[in-house]
Design a protein that fits this description.
The chain has 156 residues and is of the alpha+beta class. The protein has two domains: 2-53, no CATH class; 70-148, Four Helix Bundle (Hemerythrin (Met), subunit A) (Up-down Bundle). The chain has helices spanning 2-8, 56-66, 70-79, 128-131, 135-148; strands spanning 12-14, 23-25, 33-35, 41-43, 80-82, 89-91, 98-100, 109-111. The strands form four sheets. The chain has a two-stranded antiparallel ribbon with strand order 1-2.
């Protein structure tokens, strides 16, 4: 009977935390953060994870966009590569292919195109290993990379 009361009450909300059996009761139905006894922080009004200072509508829209990878994951896939040594994501933000991982303790220097150790290269703007690939292999690499980000046209 208590469960039915909690399910139908506007001033009670079950905690959305994983396997949590607690409910919270509030006097005002305004959006506010609740810290459950299980440790989960959530918004009483919408039930989403605590999203202060955003209102519930913005948080719901962001959650909808973020489901299944979302814009952030797509941006990371398109604009970053993982350091070949420590696997920390790195963004290329200038023209040359020389990269140095800034992750503490790594500082590996490598080529942006082929991800090989930079010591094997002699030109900041041209990858030795990438240029030695046959046209067929370049085409294959192009297709694999660009199909994954939605491009369709090959310029060989």
């Amino acid at each position: 009977m208590a469960i039915a009361y909690a399910d139908n009450s506007k001033s009670l909300r079950w905690c959305p935390g994983l396997d949590c059996e607690y409910a919270a009761e509030v006097a005002s139905l305004a959006a506010r953060a609740i810290e459950c006894q299980c440790g989960w922080m959530y918004c009483f009004k919408c039930g989403l994870e605590d999203h202060r200072p955003c209102d519930c509508d913005i948080a719901r829209e962001w959650t909808k966009k973020d489901e299944g990878g979302g814009a952030n994951a797509k941006w990371l896939l398109v604009n970053t590569k993982d350091c070949p040594k420590c696997r920390h994501p790195i963004e290329k933000n200038q023209g040359c292919n020389f990269m140095k991982c800034r992750h503490p303790g790594c500082e590996f220097e490598f080529c942006w195109l082929c991800l090989a150790d930079w010591k094997t290269h002699n030109d900041h703007f041209k990858c030795n290993k990438y240029d030695n690939l046959s046209k067929v292999r370049r085409f294959f690499l192009y297709i694999v990379v660009n199909v994954s980000i939605g491009r369709k046209k090959f310029i060989g």
